[in-house]
Amino acid sequence: MNVNQALEYIHSVSWKGSVPGLERITKLLSLIGNPEKSLKYVHIVGTNGKGSTAAVISSVMRNAGYRVGMYTSPFIVTFNERMQVNGEMISDSELAEITEYIKPYADSMSDRPTEFELITAIAFVYFYRHKCDLVVLEAGMGGEFDATNVIPSPEVAVFTNIGLDHTDFLGDTVEKIAATKSGVIKSGCECVMYRSSASVEDVIENKCKSLGVPFTKADFDSLASVSISLEGQVFNWKDYENLFLPLLGAHQLRNAATALTAVEKLKTRGFSVTEQNIRDGLLNTYWQGRFEILSREPLFIVDGGHNPQCMEALANNIRDYLPKVSLTVLTGVLADKDYTAMYDLVAPYIKEFFLVTPPSPRALDANELAKKLLIYGKPIYVCNSVADGVKKAVESAGADGTVLAFGSLYMIGDIKNAVNKIKK
């Protein structure tokens, strides 16, 4: 089996969408010897900020000398991004080999695994074979019944920002969503939480109390921004002064504080991390697609924001980093997102819209989106493809202009490829 055959198999297994329940992943892992039981974890759940938080924790622990696995979704450019060891993606050959190894076990099951369950099993085998000291494991969209929750008690369960998303599966209030996600808390772990509303914090804290799990809210009060630029931001947190983070936005400082709180808990559980490890880890954090600068002439920024919470952060970033700039926007959305609320937050900063249909079966057609955006009274151009949209937006902005692309993570890979071609 080569990598193309492996990916074809992964994407063609009895795909049932998102099917709650741990029975299939539990069965599959038992058939292959339960590699997940030999590893230690930081389990990350939440609505927004999971990837950035995972990237900070992974970078800090890697700089502390540990062999760190990281599992995230979705991918931006290549599937292999989803599973990494010490910042290196799984190779095509190993992805193919592990998939070929797991395939007969998955095929033998009467209730076959979903795509996400199969990918999660592949990741556990990969991390086990590479003898990871720690795996930073990002949940899919759920909590209690997410395939990643098949793991034993993690070292730390980390809750990032919780908001309304995937309400069909998780619940129609933030409290219900928090309750679903709280299912990852297990006896024997530590729990760290990004500060939220009192009602959401109470849900997580009460679950911790019921299991005797220590509960820690990340300290946002001691966060202080020192300086910001398009290169990154300098900040103070607790006793640490002049830390540098290349990720942009005040929300990324809160994500970093949450990540560093998790690192503090890892230290209490026997992991050795110095202040220099923290500084170097923050400095070397990389997470693509979050207010990421792709080019300078014109300034082209891409952001994976795809729900109202993300748009609040994006609007704040526009005010902080792009004051008095009239934006050429390249955008497209998935039909199941609350896109009306999304665009309301950023429309005041937009000069013109270039619309594309994201490469996803859940995408909202660009022509339909155009009808929705007429209310803002801005020029609207519907483009044939993401690459066509990038080309036209760049031409319209001119060398001194600014292009901002946002709306769906599924577009970012095509956007980056198109921008790179223009730069060449």
Structure description:
- By secondary structure, the chain is of the alpha/beta class.
- It contains 15 helices and 17 strands.
- The strands form three sheets. An eight-stranded mixed β-sheet has the order 4-3-2-5-1-6-7-8, with helices on both faces. It has a six-stranded mixed β-sheet with strand order 12-13-17-14-15-16, sandwiched between helices.
- Strand 10 and strand 11 form a beta hairpin.
- Helix 3 crosses helix 9, helix 7 packs parallel to helix 8 and helix 11 packs parallel to helix 12.
- The mean pLDDT is 93.
Number of DSSP strand runs: 17
Overall radius of gyration: 21 Å
How far apart are the termini? 34 Å
**CATH superfamily membership of the largest domain:** Mur-like, catalytic domain
Major sheet characteristics:
8 strands, mixed
Q: What is the approximate shape? A: globular
Give the strand order, joined by hyphens, for the main sheet.
4-3-2-5-1-6-7-8
Determine the strand fraction and express it as a percent band: 15-25%
Low-confidence stretches: none
How would you state the average pLDDT, rounded? 93
State the helical fraction. 40-55%
Can you tell me the number of structural domains? 2
CATH fold-type name of the largest domain: UDP-N-acetylmuramoyl-L-alanine:D-glutamate ligase
